[in-house]
Amino acid sequence: MSNLSLIVVLLVLLALGYQLGMARSRKVATVNSDLRMHSRPHHYGMMVGLWAVLPAFFILILWLWLSPAIINSMMLSQLPATVLALSADELRVVSQRISNLANNFGVVADAAQWELDAAEHLRILKANSAMVLTSLMAVIAAVGMLLSLLKITPRLKARHQVERVVKALLILCSTVAILTTIGIVLSMVGETLKFFSYIPPSEFFFGTTWNPRFSTVGIGEQGSFGLVPLLAGTALIAGIAMLVAIPLGLMVAIYLAEYAPVKLRNTAKPLIEVLAGIPTIVYGFFALVTVGPFLRDLGAAIGLDINATSALTAGVVMGIMIIPFISSLSDDIITQVPKSMRDGSLGLGATKSETILKVVLPAALPGIVGAVLLAASRAIGETMIVVLAAGNSPALTANPFEAVSTVTVTIVNQLTGDNDFSSPQSLVAFALGLTLFVITLLLNVIALVIVRKYREQYE
Amino acid sequence: MTIIAENPIKAVAAPSQVQQKVIDSLNRRHRKENLFRRLGLTAVLISLGLVAVLFINIFSKGLPAFWQSAVTLDIYFDPQIIKIPPMPQQRDDESDNDFRQRHIEWQTEIGFVNFNRLITDSLQKVLPDANKHRRDLARVVTSGERFALRDMVVADPSIIGQTRTLHLLTDANIDVWLKGNIDRSLPDEQQQLSAKMREWVDKLSADGVIQNRFSLALFMNPDSRSSLASAGLAGAFMGSFYMMLVVILLAVPMGVAAAIYLEEFAPRNKITDLVEVNINNLAAVPSIVFGLLGASVLIGWFNLPMSAPIVGGLVLSLMTLPTVIIATRSTLKAIPPSIRQAALGLGASKMQAIFHHVLPLAIPGILTGAILGVAQALGETAPLLLIGMKSFVASIPASPFEQASALPVQIYLWQGNELRNFFEARTSAAIIVLLLMMISLNGLAIWLRKKYEKRW
Amino acid sequence: MSNSAPVKISASDVKVFYGDNQALHGISMDVYQHEVISFIGPSGCGKSTFLRCMNRMNDTIDQCRVTGSILLDGRDIHEPALDVVQLRAQVGMVFQKPNPFPKSIYENIAYGPKLHGLAERKADLDDIVESSLRRAGLWNEVKDRLDQPGTGLSGGQQQRLCIARSIAVSPEVILMDEPCSALDPIATSIIEELIDELKQNFTIVIVTHNMQQAARVSDRTAFFHLGNLIEIGNTNDVFTNPQQKRTEDYITGRYG
Questions:
Q1: How does this protein lie in the membrane (chain A) (predicted)?
Q2: C194-231 b/e (C-beta count within 10 Å ≥ 16 → b)
């Protein structure tokens, strides 16, 4: 049976156990009419259903996790000795071929007889495995259901059992977020250490040339993996983006929070926030086909040599993307400044703009700084706009009119979906990713701390 | 601003003098006030203008791509060309499997038929000097259309020997030429179409044989490299669909469960604080980092297939999870404790109070958060590039485990196509499709929020 | 205080609406120069709303509409030629909760004079800051830490800082909206003494829910109820011999 149908069967079992448990508990209740049942019938039902399904499901997960490796090694053990003598990498190719044959997928070139035999063997092993799994699950589910049905007595605290299981599930789900973080850190640290076994960290962090060559050239012909030009490109583009986004976003927030009539505010705010919902690939395309040529022509008109794909193009479009981010965060923060503060200033005869510039903004400054840091971290981690519009030229330059490259672009370039992570050319992507992760994490933590402090101040 | 310099204020100046100074300062200050207010308004108008420019730009580029040049031909399904045995019928003593095998063999045989001949033959009727330019003749209709003819035969073999009037998509370069997306004055060697072909196309267009027609190819077909004019989004759409399914099935329930635990059950201590900080940070981690996680853990360790929507869905789920958790928590926070206390006071257990009384009230808010999370996942590109979803896939995936692309990745792939004149519009059209999906998702979220908005 | 002093503020038929709710039902009264007048009444009676009309602070509230006329020195404060900035420089305000700006003590006081261009030189500004703090009785307590944030002071000191802040722009009238409600008794008595001194130079209108305070500091008292002015007169008369039954009930504690 396929795994999907196994899961469907488990769901049916859950419903069946539920019904049986309810029926059984009602019967127990009528037999022991002098005693009060501890829980409501549906609790007994849930309990029976869970006992039927959970252990079997656990087996299924375990089986799916462990069996492929076991089956593969059983299949490999039957191969001719000449094949077994191959290196691990070649052996992997062989087993991939056999698995394709077994699944009736085509393979390159005609299959040898021993490959066909192995494929047949693999098919049988897989069929056996599925049968064993199905019967094992059937037995466990049946035993679980029967035992729990028999256990139903007035004193059985079924509700507590059910609630404990539910709570355990809830806790399991909340650990996923933690596990994700741990997964990110561990996997990237692991691959980065592998990378550092080829290239010393000092060369990576302080090198000023980025020229990784291709992995096919081999390790003997190593390129240079200097991070500095990439970081410089990232900083340049993020800086331009912030130059565009901070004044616009802040002025939008101030105007909408302090001046705009309610109607304008209620229309303009969601419209500007539309910018935040547009996928970044769309911005990238917009930058590439519209903004880039426009800036180039504009530059030509005033005698500047601007590349169509340049730090400027990517930065300007990224700035547009970030406007709603800064404006809505700042809007929240500005409206949080207590009214008494404004009243105090207005009561002294200050104009509205004087009140905003000299009282409201200074009071809101920490929060706004936090918002700007969050926006900066987004700009640094942004990928698609720079992939399309920054020009992908990892040169160390401070000229915004030239093409540059960034950390994110390079990650995409180096890890083109190749699942062979053994060359430094691919591994460097993880070192870059880790660098990116640490930088954005620092920015986020500082920003969150500042914003939280700010909120507490006015609560 | 006059006499004060000689007359420094000792204590506080006399009222009238002060008033005079205030009055003197008024003009300057009101000018500043107006300037500031106008700056703010300008910023708002610029931002709104940018939204407008972006949308107008994409729509004006993309909308024409929904209409494509198509040539109207009377196709004669010539039995001389389509020489195939009759469609096999299942015999009584035959197993389903054997029959299927025979049917596939029959289809394979149809595959050898030269359907292009059908097209060129009927083109000859409208183009008198066609015989002298057979190479060009074979290129008028985009190559993907012969499969459309084949599919017609497979679906209904009785069509052989009949004539049907069909609208067939022309080659992408013809579409470009007729839409004026290429400079007609360019010399021959820079033109994609031969001089003869350009002459034909202009004639056919003038005769009304080639017309600009609304084409479903963009929606119905998977991507193609050989037949650019019929390259479509169907494969990418299904890829995105499977990924969203995974996100809805994984990220949403898990996020809601995590939020319920953290908001309602978790003790307030250092660990929950850490979890909270962790979730907030995870929400701000660049999406590409999730792609790296997918590449190294899901593909590298768990040996899941490359380019498969299941892997993309898992990566996007992890990415969306914090969004769902944060939205759900703030919804739960907004529900007043009195509701919980009322339920607890009636003897419900904490679990019952939350699942029977609090959660139903939170559903609109949770749905809103979930939809916004799904919309975010739908538009995400960068992590998918790292798990191999940028490879070219020419089929529509039948399950989440097969190779597939995704809508935003398809946009990325198309914008890089060499036939820029054709694909700039087609990419914009794909963006329109993506944007419409995002806007409807966001609209749905806003509608839900408006409809069930409740102030406690 | 005799009624021979010139009229500083003259209100007639002032009505205030918040959206569809009418908060004040036609208030008319005069405020004389250099007197202390207190507004008393149960919460929600409109006394603060009326106070905020006198320097048009209600303008800052959306949906708030004021009708009727208020004359300051015989000039209507709603007339278009009169700038609200100028009005508020003339009629200062101290709020219920001390609201020093998140700036240094010095900057808090110097804020108004700087805005209005009252001091040409740094020395002038220093003079204004010192004299304002002295008159608010705060100088000796803060002279050594003028550069420290105003929010670091105690509640009573913060409120005196706010009073000093409004004195610094040399207003003619100071409106005080329950200035002691957030303060402890000792800080309250210091502020009350301060009010007594300030009335030499300023006209003071004070809203209070504390009847003893009204009796202690004010020359005249006005009693508001449900948006109406019920009674106004010399403080002694209002407290010892109220003309209206409602005033008497409120003063004797029947409601409040």
A1: Multi-pass membrane protein
A2: bbeebbebbbbbbbbbebebbbbbbbbbbbbbebebbb
